[in-house]
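Quick check before the chapter quiz. The format below is the same one you will see on the exam, so make sure you can read both the input and the output lines.
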Amino acid sequence: MLFRSPQPIYPTPVVGMVGLIPDLKKVCGQGWQDEGDLIYLLGVGTHGTGEGAVTLGGSEYLKHIHQTVAGQPPKTDVALELVVQAACRYGIRQGWIRSAHDCAEGGIAIALAESCISGKKGANVAITQGQKRLDTLLFEEGGARILVSVSAGNKAVWETYCETQLANRVHYLGTVTSADSPLYISTETGQVVINGVVAVLKQAWSSAIENALAV
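Here is the expected output.
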């Protein structure tokens, strides 16, 4: 019999949650709803606000692109998480927020791509890079970050609410575009970093498990 050295198992925590929805007519998924809807990032901005709040440590990007599992995971800001989650829930119940998606697994680039895929629409967004590398900007992970879309007609009431509840923790990114438009991401300097056809993104996304098992 061949005995191998013990190997650690990649951590797979599972959390089960039960929530109460007061009105089943006031719910939303991760997919965009209508062309022209406004896209916001709630919580920690792309330029980062607090050391360790978002990081590539332990990220999907390091694991899949660099075959590396290393680094410190992001620090949890419980107070900010509660504020961001409460604002998101309130926006949904008021009918302002039309889609919502976390930015945990894969960072903001993956959240944007999945919202495009689920909603069958493109997006045109500009994100603040600051001094970050592009891979960090796009794929760093962390909590207290929710990507939402809001109808243009609710822009004023939504932003007024955010001023009182989130202060500088809400960041306008761009707009939802048509079904035949790409996911277009640029930086504040105008540098284009992603210009992806949604159908191509969907093919990669939908075949991920099959490709992983083939390897």
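If your answer matched, good. Helices lie at 60-65, 78-93, 107-119, 134-139, 155-165, 198-206, 208-214.
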